[in-house]
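Lab notebook page, bench 4
Experiment: in silico fold of construct C2
Operator: M.H.
Input chain length: 442 residues
Purpose: comparison with the prior construct
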Amino acid sequence: MDNHSTEEKTSKHERSSESASESSSESQLSQASERFLNELNIESSRPAAGQIEGLQRTREENGVEHANGQVHALSFDDSIFAGHTQTGRAHATDIQNNVTAKEISASTDSLGNSGTIAERGLAPRAEQGEKTGTQHDGGHAPESPTRRSETTTTDSHGNVTTVDAQGNTTVTSRDGNMVTYTGADGRGWIRVHSDRGFTQTHFGPSPRDNYSIERTYGRDGAYSDRYTYADSSRNHTREVDREGRVVVTDATGLRIRLDGGSPEFQERVLNQILDLPLADRQRLRSLGATVHVVDRPSDANIRRRIPEGAQGFYDHIDTRAIIIGERSGRGLETSDPEWLTRHEIGHALDHSFGSPFSRTALSADSNAFRDALKEDELKMDDLTRAVYDRYFNISPFTHGPAELFADIYAAMQSANPTARERELLAAFPSLAAQIRRRLGPR
């Protein structure tokens, strides 16, 4: 990237009550944005940065005509998030409404030391055809497919209210220490900043929408989020180290390592775990199990060989790792992360009921399990027995009864059982009843 500088032609506002981290990140962002404008050969500099009174601020300048006739509109917007990262977007639009755009981020650590500058190209708004936006911790700030339309007002106390084209409202206090976001769908959050972090209270129409996050910043960019729900069984903490590695610890102390996979996949797996009964998670914690969410199961880096076609795996011999992959070793994507999570946890619970002090014992090998399985088998017609034949086979490559235990557990804990899951429970009523008794009150 060229190391150019451009003389600003717009006036600079005096700064007041800015932290060292805000000043450093804005300085980096300003330099990067100026270089971007130079790359576009724009003769007019961006609008002045201005005084940052809140956590989010937008400036836009339209109708800028240039001698070469190539650029007829220019906009630049920037924001401060949590006082540590500033992100700017610069747009240049020609007379055909084609947009050249970049997103430039500059960050500092919690002590105000300068961090890095990152840039990425943005798709032209005119070609997107759909609404886009930037997702932060609790809010969504959408943009229109062409030119953003929003209104901003400042009251007599200096509080700034912004309403975007979709009806989402953001209110930022004059000192920037409080931000309230209310989405058009009724969901939103209130964030209050402190010296060491912030508290963010979420609200919405469903019970799961109502919770709070208490963030505490550490050194070198590390931070910890504590999530608190009305249903305390969903409480958990999320620790993020300086390298971006994430470890979640639930209310029982069960650890979930978010080592890979897309953010959406990680959240689906995590929410499924938090939806499981507290007693089941406590049993996993007592077993010494740890959940690893990864892109591919082999990424978990355990000593045991994992079948290449497997999307999930439970290591009951060495590490007691419950591995949930977004895709198999062959690249086949996991279509139902919730089912896979319940299934692999079912294997771990099977192990815990067998003998947690043994390296190999499974509940599915017990006499009680065999008796219940035999009772269900005697009631099956020939077609049903043929459909579920795999559950009765034991070989060096598969353990049918263990797979049956895991599948029954996955079906029992499904919030919306599929036809296949309902048929499975109907085919093995005695075994399902025994597993329910072993699991205890739900």
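Observations: Residues 159 and 173 are 4 Å apart (CA to CA). The mean pLDDT is 76.
Next step: discuss at group meeting.
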